[in-house]
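Data availability (excerpt). The following record was deposited with the supplementary files.
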Amino acid sequence: MRRILALAAAAVAAAAVATPAEALENGLARTPPMGWNTWNTFECNINETLVKQTTDLMVSSGMRDRGYTYVNLDDCWMTRSRDANGNLVADPAKFPSGLKALGDYIHARGMKFGIYESAGTMTCQSYPGSLGHEQADANLFASWGVDYLKYDNCFNNGSNTQEDYIRRYSAMRDALKATGRPIVYSICEWGDFAPATWAADVGNLWRTTGDITNNWGSIASIYHQNVGLAAAAKPGAWNDPDMLEVGDGMDFQEDRAHFTLWAAMAAPLIAGADLRSASVATFSTYLNPDVIAVDQDPLGKQGRRIATGNGLDVLAKPLQDGDVAVVLFNENSTTKTVSTTAAAAGLPAASSYRLTNLWSKELTTSTGAISASVPSHSTVIYRVKANSSGSSIGTAQPIQGASSARCFDINGNVTTPGTKVDIWDCDGGPNQAWTFTSAGELKANGLCLDASGGTSAAGTKLVAWTCHGGANQKFKLEADGSITQGGLCVDVTGGDKPAGNVNGTQLELWNCNDDANQNWSLRR
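Predicted structure:
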């Protein structure tokens, strides 16, 4: 939460809080919490309708079923003063049905309800804080059916030592426990007093940094502050590098990198975008089940950085089944090759390793080398399994686009050479079952994907044609999810805009730009 007015807290008196003795063990957040929060996009412009619409969309889009279960209000949900009995009051203009009714609405859809307060005399936006009111406020939250509390640090009564911080945050920990209701406890002290060294005894997750913003500089800075804290993470206790900015203004590769890095660091995955207007590409990032599985792996290990230098990092995250998730990260402004080995990633010695690219879904086999060409501000993530092998070569699979969620398609399901290749709703038909061959072809319906006219120039339309082995029929699925020929990328014509992603839109070759309409994955 923003530190607005936080420095004014030193002049504000507050009730003394006794230092409790018990550590936290509430059995909650055994994997990092997932959900949505109002702050990043809406700040104080929140209301009941927005929250209900977003809750319903999280259900209909599949987010709930992928694990995004928390719907969290941030600051500004209450009135500027407590009532005559000293209780917090939900703003009746914003939440006319009240927060108990809102919680019931969220629960009825199989979701969980989160709320915000501050461990100070006021919240960051100058609403009543909980310092000195911990038990009364915890009881109120429990009565409303709250499942998650984000507890901020503004107007903190001049706290300036780690002991002060522990005292204030422990008071609410004990108050939540006394309610008897299971409530995930999220500490938001901005990383001021090294919470990774003490907060596991107090909360389920703790902010390790200041507030995130929707630009690459913020993402990279926060990553560097959080990546070295892996030893503190465990089931029920997580480093929190703040919410996700996916779908909130960065480019496609930056969104993917942001999401991948947070998953590798076992971070909470709390969306902050306006999901009601989110693109298909944004949902393709939020809903990737394989990357989510890395974040939610029950072993509960945060990925460790095993190599760094020249703007290139490698992370390795051990998983419960013995696999290791390996992230190759390029912070530079140009494409770079990033490399490591299975041994460096902590895998046992083996004759072969299966590498599953978790975005493109391509399978490859390695004797130990792990390497990829990684675009600027991007990542490639592999799930690596020892003593195993596999290849996407020779396997017929649909190819799905990130900008449209539609599949490579031979129009009309015909076998006539010259038929256009377009995008269409994925239907499992033979005209959508594409096979990469060892010769570099891409075949379906007995025909090959072909750059029409025998050329490889930007703007060349793609068709299905009799296979002849020419250079204009050679395609490669790259580690970043692009499909290339002659230095150009397979592109949904006009697919950089929503109107360009409709059924029947033809594919073409175009200059590679790392956008979503040039990003593809193999459907299993």
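Summary of structural features: Confidence is low (pLDDT under 50) at residues 1-21.
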